[in-house]
Design a protein that fits this description.
alpha+beta; 2 domains; 31% strand; 18% helix
C-alpha cells in the first residue's frame, strides 16, 4: 500500500506538471481560449484603452510607468511613441466566425504586471526560462542581450518545430527579461 501511494503521488505530480506546461497563459488567461470582454477584464484588470486593428484584432492596452525609456513600433498598424517612463502591455484577441467571445491570440508584455504561466515575469533572469527545459533558439545581439524563443517539446518529439508560434523572451546584456511575446500572423 505504501508503494501504491508513492506511485500514485508521482503519477499525479507528473500529470499536473505536464498539464502546467501544455498550455500558455497570461495571469491565468489561457491562449487559444474564448472569453467575453467581462471575463478578460475580471482576469487582467481594466485596460487603459482598447484598440481595434484593421486585421480584425482587438488589443487591450495596459500602460504603466517604467524606469527606462522604451520607444517601440507596435505591429498593429500604428506607431506608439513612449515617454521616458511609460511602457505598454498588449493582450490581443480576434473574433472567429461562428464562435462566441474573443479568442486570446497574442501578447506583448513589457512590464511586471503580467506573468507567463505564473512562472516568468519581466525582470526575471533568462536562465529561469532555460531551466524549464525544451528546445531554444537563442539569438544574441551586439550589446550582449538577445531573444530566446522557447519550444516546450517532449523528449520523444520528432519533426520540425514551428518556431513562429513559440513564446519569445527578450533579455538585456545582464540576462534579465525585458519583454515577453507571442506574435504570429
Amino acid at each position: 500500500m505504501k508503494y501504491f501511494k508513492i506511485i500514485l503521488a508521482a503519477v499525479t505530480f507528473s500529470l499536473f506538471s505536464a498539464a502546467l506546461h501544455a498550455q500558455i497563459s497570461i495571469n491565468g488567461l489561457i491562449m487559444n481560449e474564448f472569453y467575453t470582454e467581462e471575463e478578460i477584464i475580471e482576469i487582467l484588470g481594466t485596460p487603459d484603452s482598447i484598440a481595434y486593428a484593421i486585421e480584425g484584432y482587438i488589443y487591450f492596452r495596459y500602460q504603466e510607468e517604467k524606469e527606462t525609456q522604451q520607444n517601440i513600433s507596435v505591429p498593429i498598424g500604428d506607431k506608439v511613441e513612449l515617454t521616458n517612463n511609460e511602457s505598454i502591455d498588449y493582450i490581443g484577441f480576434d473574433k472567429w466566425q461562428g464562435k462566441e467571445g474573443l479568442h486570446f491570440a497574442n501578447y506583448i508584455i513589457n512590464t511586471k504586471r503580467f506573468s507567463f504561466n505564473n512562472m516568468f515575469w519581466v525582470g526575471d533572469p533568462i536562465s529561469k526560462v532555460k531551466a524549464e527545459g525544451g528546445q531554444f533558439l537563442d539569438r544574441k545581439n551586439k550589446n550582449g542581450g538577445g531573444c530566446l524563443t522557447w519550444a516546450r517539446v517532449a523528449d520523444d518529439h520528432s519533426g520540425p518545430i514551428e518556431w513562429i508560434v513559440c513564446p519569445r523572451f527578450y533579455y538585456d546584456e545582464n540576462g534579465i527579461i525585458t519583454c515577453m511575446e507571442l506574435w504570429y500572423s
